[in-house]
Amino acid sequence: MSGRIYLVGAGPGDPGLLTIRGRQCLAAATCVIYDYLANPRLLDFAPASAERLLVGKHGGGEKVAQDVINDLMVDRARGGATVVRLKGGDPFVFGRGAEEAQAIRAAGIDFEVVPGVSAAIAVPAYAGIPLTHRDFASSVTITTGYEYPGKAEAAVRWHDIARPDNTIVLLMTTRQLDANMRQLLDGGLAAETPAALIEWGTRADQRTVVATVGTLAAAAAREAIGPPALAVVGDVVRLRATLQWCERRPLFGRRIVVTRPRHQAPELAATLEAWGAEVMLFPTIEIAPPPSLGALDDALERAAEFDWLVFTSANGVQVFFDRLRSRGRDIRAWHRARIAAIGPQTARALAAFGIHVDVVPTDFRAEGLLASLDGESIAGRRFLLPRAGGARAVLPDELRARGAIVEEVVTYVSRLPAVDADALLDWVDQGIDLVTFTSSSTAEHFARIAGERLARIVAKTRFGCIGPVTADTARAHGMPVAVEPTSYTVQAFAEAIATFFRDQPQRGRTNV
Fold first, then answer.
1. Residue of 44, 57, 297, 358 with catalytic role
2. Fold of 255-285+417-501
3. Structure pTM?
């Protein structure tokens, strides 16, 4: 039985502009065929097992022929795959999506078009340029700045669109910018008409050049603006001076690597992106079950024996309650045990199961919990610690030194995921502002993955750590720490990153 093909608009670059329907299609995909303009972050919404095929080109780079792309979609669908053809912007706005839909229909395969946010609308908005305004323009013309060389006659009617009361958006204009501006001048537009060229709009490396129709091409050449870029022509460009907002975000233009496990990365990534950063996910640890959960199962049978139940991570909480449920046990059996959690994230994970936490230290590490228990009678008390394999021995050792009876049960282990270290080096060479670590394991594994490349990475970027224990691990591997919050939460970490970069110059990503 044939599969189905979804032509999905990926939006102009900011992953937050993907539609809900687009994300649903990606979640169901067994094959994703994507262009270079589709942000690679969007691939994270597809199952890990889904095939991923890059078929786009960058500017004048190597191109996959359209017929080959059509054949790939049809071939995979005929094999029963659910295919997502992920296209930058909107599939039906200068994206050759209509041609692809025709080929799919000719092959007799079902398809669906999922509109995306067009770059023609989103990119000017991110540059602070409205396309219409009651005082400046009541119409908009969206046109191509590049026409197929094989056309017998030009389709763009420059004389018709070159009106002072009309906003003109030119897509694919970079290499023909001078010729396009001359066409507008020949069409009657005044040379002093405001004009802007926006490169990589909606992304962290967005750059905007503001000039006039008569000077834009020269200004863009001076700034070495390259594709992808679009031009906006008209009096609405004047409004950028007061309406620009994207560049004012505290982390605008910053590229930040998040090394958390993939399922935990969104909490930090979403905040950094909301503040203007481009986030690259490079998970250095993967959460996996231990060789055996026998010790945890045994402890679950002896709930009445324990005086304290201490959780050190949200992962441990999840495994504990999953196991409790799968074995048909009731949390009420733990009614006599007091519950402690290291850190608010762990406490929130417990709250999701309706559990009130008795102790949450203000210092979110083992030492903080020990300090919080100074007033407690610990000698002879039984503690259960469901936690990661290989965790620091500080907590159980100190509890035992105070006379407690401690049982540690391994609920999960962290291991090295399958990652591409060469891709990391490519990112660093292109310009990474910060690599973040949220646990000692992420720092330890990053160093192992980098291997002999680590010295080169250290020379080209900076590192941030969520707390002192993680920072000590990073420094032990030769990674100097530039950012470290005083409170060890994800939110505090993000705020510390924003504060650090507030007065730091942006490397090569300026706006003019």
1. 57
2. Rossmann fold (3.40.50)
3. 0.81
